[in-house]
Amino acid sequence: MIPVLRLAAKRIGTSLLVLFGVSVLIFCIARVIPGDPARVALGPNATAEQVANLRAQLRLDEPLVAQYGHFLADLARGDLGRSLYTNRPVTTDIAEFLPATLELILVAGIMMIAFGLPLGILAARFRGRWPDHLIRVLSLLGVSAPSFVWAVGLMLVFSYYLGWFPIAGRIASQFEIGRVTGFLLIDTLLAGNGAAFRSAAAHLVLPAFALALSGIGQAARLTRANMIETYETPYIEMARAYGFPERRVANRYAFRPSLIPSLTIIGLDLAALLGNAFLVEAVFGWPGLSRYGVQVILRKDLNAIVGTVLIISAMFILVNIIVDVLTVLLNPRIRHAQRGATP
Amino acid sequence: MRRTARILAANPLSLLGVLLVSLVIVGAVFAPVLAPFPDHRGAVVDFTNFNKPPSATHVMGTDVVGRDLFTRILYAYRISLLLAVVVLAIAVPIGVTLGLMAGYLGGWWEYAIMRLTDVFLSIPPLVLAISIMGVLAPTLVNGMIAVTAMWWPWYTRLVYNIARGEKVEGYVLAAEVIGASRIHVMFREILPNCIPAVLTKMTLDAGFVILIVSSLSFLGLGVQPPTPDLGSMVAEGARYLPDSWWLAVFPGLAILVAVFGFNLIGDGLRDVLGADR
Questions:
Q1: Is B102 among the domain residues?
Q2: Residues near A84 by beta carbon (within 8 Å), at least 6 away in sequence
Q3: Which of A73, A264, B215, B227 is the most buried (most CB within 10 A)?
């Protein structure tokens, strides 16, 4: 257990350094804005004095390094400044919109694993035969269109033509669900409202699937490649020689070691969903962080841009740490090698 | 090279990829000849013909101001392909050079370059491009800058991993022993061994650049109207669902066809060259 802890500590250390780099990068990007953000925020009718006041309030008249220093000091106190768009603290905004996005991404991630891994196992078992070719084409198709194209396609077929799923939003408007966690699937259950839960779940299906599609393909491809590698090892031959049924050889002996490399990439894909959520949320009118992100970018809302990108990157980095640690925990070879190896 | 071509030709999926990509390139290059209504690429209004479903004259229908959708898709391909070529032409040399330096020179270079790469790779790719486009004016050149900024680190990481392995090979040591310069070792000895992996990634990435650029313009952060762009066409068409389905469906399919083609070729190349990440 100790080597795992040491690895986690080391990874968290490096990640903090990277996150610091990200904050500098994003801060610089946000400060090269052409045009005056204070002017953009106040509109064309504001007086020069009002603009100057806002500039002073945002500390835009100080040198860049000083601005960054103030930003870090505020950040240390958990303050990301005020949004010019909603006129509330950026942290309040993020806390409001983040759960909707996380719910979407988590459900998409579950779909990615639930569909991707079995498809990969199937393709490896029938390597070189038609199920393999079919899965190969399907997974390539999955990554060949941006998620907004899938979103529009799914919406057209399953919402408009077939009418199986609702068109947009998170839940039907007649339900009033008190906010506890911000995750509607959990909040509706806490409220004991079965109909509202079904409504929230139905609203999630299409956006999550559109988001998951490219990841499903990648997870399937990767699981297939790793399974094929495992199939060529002597212990699989031995399992076959013992006369175990092919199904058991596939699911028990070939799949388990193949899971580890797949997990790493699935973790990365899951994190990439944070970016694609921008597109899917726009199509389905999903009131999440990504939609907020686009709004604040279009309005050149500095604090909100920096805050949103920083939070997204922090989550991205966090997912990667979790995946790294899980990889070590699951793989006895790395787990034991860590003990002997010098860092 | 010839062997590679022969194996690719024997793979029906790669052939399909070559066919799709050829169609897209021919359509883009010869758009002025092939497009039935070349002037519809700009800000033309034809209110006698607006929002017409696909027909013999307008094979993909017309948009909300009466412009031929097929014409606009061909012209949109021109911009998408141009962007893909320019982005890769800038991002790949930068990424590869930095990767070679980090992998071969090691030490301080390795630390500085790879941490910088980590920073760029720690922001989800689309989010980085969106934030850059958010602060810059939405023009073609800025779009190229934003997408290039998010692309080079992937090549740095790819080449870094290869170069680090090659560095200890006998042929590199031999070159060092006879006094070859660092530049010579990096670019003449190690680089040729990175080429298969880089080429495969470039083929796949040509499709993904098209995909990312269309995503930016879908959000209104890319090429601005009246310049035709596949992403913004889907965004506009999505507002007229389900009645005017052709407005969103054909540009969406156009993205799918182009990216799918590049992916099929890249996938075939990966099998042949065995160049996996």
A1: yes
A2: A37, A41, A299, A301, A302, A303, A304
A3: B215
Q: Please write down the HEC assignment for all residues of A307-320.
A: HHHHHHHHHHHHHH
CB contact under 8 A, A274 and B238: no
Shared domain check, A274 and A166: yes
CATH number at residue B180: 1.10.3720.10
Write the DSSP assignment of A173-206 as a string of letters. Answer: TT-----SSS-HHHHHHHTT-HHHHHHHHHHHHH
> On the CB side of A84, how many CA atoms lie within 13 Å of its CA?
22
Q: pTM surpassing 0.90?
A: no
**Least Cα separation, residue A283 to chain B (angstroms):** 8
Six token digits for residue A283: 């199509």
Can you give the pLDDT of all 277 residues of chain B as single tens digits?
Answer: 667 777 777 778 888 888 998 898 988 888 788 778 777 777 777 777 777 777 777 777 777 777 888 888 888 888 889 888 999 999 999 999 999 999 888 889 888 898 888 888 877 778 888 888 777 777 788 888 888 888 899 899 889 988 888 888 888 888 888 888 888 888 888 888 888 888 888 888 888 888 888 888 888 887 777 788 888 888 888 888 787 888 888 888 999 999 999 988 888 887 777 644 3
The ipTM value here is 0.82
Number of independent structural domains in chain B: 1
CB contact under 8 A, B242 and A160: yes
- Tens of pLDDT, residues B15-73: 888 899 889 898 888 878 877 877 777 777 777 777 777 777 777 777 777 788 888 88
Distance from the A216 Cα atom to the nearest Cα atom in chain B, whole angstroms: 16
The Cα B210–Cα A331 span in angstroms is 38
Looking at chain A, how many residues does it have?
Answer: 343
Residue with tokens 């799923």: A165
pLDDT digits (tens, 9 = 90+) for A128-178: 788 888 888 888 888 888 888 888 888 888 878 887 888 777 776 677 776
Q: Are A208 and A311 in the same domain?
A: no
Contact criterion met (CB < 8 Å) for B122 and A156: no
Tell me which residue range forms the domain holding B98.
25-34+58-276
Do A125 and A184 share a domain, yes or no?
A: yes
Amino acid residing at A62: E
| Contacts B255 to A, Cβ<8 Å | 145-146, 149
Regarding whether A207 and A336 lie in a shared domain, the answer is no
Note down the domain range covering A163. 100-287
Is residue A187 domain-resident?
Answer: yes
Is residue A19 located within the same domain as residue A109? no
Give me the number of domains chain A comprises.
2
CA B64-A142-B34 angle, to 5 degrees, is 45
Residue type, A162: L
User: A314, A19 in Cβ contact below 8 A?
Assistant: yes
